[in-house]
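User: Can you predict the 3D structure for this chain?
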Amino acid sequence: MTSPFRRSARSLACGLATVIGLGGCAVLTPLPHPTTLDQRLAALPTTGPGLSQPVTVHWHARAIPFVEAATDQDGFYALGMVHGHLRLGQIELLRHISQGRISEVAGPLAADIDRSVRLLGFGRVAPQVLAAMPAEERGLLDAFLRGLNHVQATIATPPHEYVIGNLERVPFTAEDLITIGRLASTDVNWLVWFRLLQYRERADWPELYARLLEAGTSSVPSIAPGTAALEQVLGSAARVGSNSAAVAGRRTASGAAMIASDPHLGLSQPNTWVIAGLKTPSFHMLGLMVPGLPFVAVGRNADIAWGGTNMRSANSDLIDLSTVPESELTVRREPLVQRFWFDSTATIRDSRFGPVLSDAPLLRTRPGERFALRWIGHQPTDELTAMLRLNRARDWQGFRAALTGFAVSPQNMIYADRHGNIGQVTATMLPRRPLTRPTDIVQPASAAAAWDQIATSADLPAVYNPAAGFVASANNRPADAEIPIGWFFSNDDRITRMAELLGGSAPVTTQTLFDLQRDAFKRSALALRDVMLARLQGATL
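Assistant: Here is the predicted structure, written as structure tokens:
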């Protein structure tokens, strides 16, 4: 009998072969002719845009754009054009990935990945999110969308991704962009679960799981009161490890607050981020943006700066469905278009708790097992509005207020402002679970009780101008709270090293923060060295 692990490993191998095959197709497809920077800039359409007044796009020597417009609507329209000009092919591929449509590009060997992604349902609440979005923020999103679609419709030559993938120029919708945002907000806890599910057949699984929870929750807190193929797809979008720190003006050589953020993401071409800036009557911001999303995720405006790291908070549960009658499940079938092959269907089962995730072809589950995914991202939270309000916040109060509507992906948000102040916010939404440690698969009754009430960042720990003079985060446990924030955090190496480098008596400089982000010292490696040396000294050769 073929084990689920081997099946998923084989699916991964087939998926990689498909990608390699597409690379072979690319060899047969003529590459675009090399172009100069001036030629690439000239390719941005300048005629026919729906603008009320002239807009200027300034280009840095390294082709970083800064949009300047007399109205917010015109500014976001031009910002959408810039995203389309720089990353249209990437945004198109993100649309296909987030909707479980990789087979349309890669063929039938990606079908199981598509079925699994569709079960995760990144776009299932997009219509509700848009229906509830405030008119002002919806107007900015629509302006950005019109600019993006204007580029797609008018460029003379589409990006090479369109040629290789045989992609048509289909206008993007607001639902598409919300779904891409949900993909970028993948819960990193899923990546842990997908790796752990295979070990539940071990006799020592209860002990092993207890030890994993102990290790994952023993991390130093930031705010102290004194399946393989599916993993690969989701992991490419998740923030898997980052450092962020802010130092108060009273601790720096210049007297100004300083902030340094380093989102540790895997190398990719094109890059995961778009660096861009925007100046309009309501916005004056610059920083890192997710391709296809109209807000600065890490950056600054004229008054404040922000960064952060993924919190890894527990905003998902796996719910046992073994006692839920089959009649309570709903079933729908979605067409699955497959390049190079016949079309197929994806069957999606839903429960009152969420999609039946155990149906995902690439998960390593027990025979006959049924469980659902309960994720805060399946509720109509509005991160786009939260981030747009954060982008134009002017002080700590505005920063905190903006984040009360933020749920996914959960972030340890770091803050600094022009007056020398610093702070940190636990930016997420969580079910109000008991503090007891969870089982791997949660029973429906306990899940229902926990998810009846949701805590927001206003209910969770925050700190403003702490006595230490700095705040820092490195995917470690953010704080102790009345409810459990999470179970699987990074170990102490990075956060304790950051505290060592920032907590001295010497004033902090720009060079201090450069050195901090490049520092590779790992105290646990020294401890492991000492243990190994001690054992070797006592060994008989």
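The longest helix spans residues 72-98. The CA atoms of residues 356 and 372 lie 4 Å apart.
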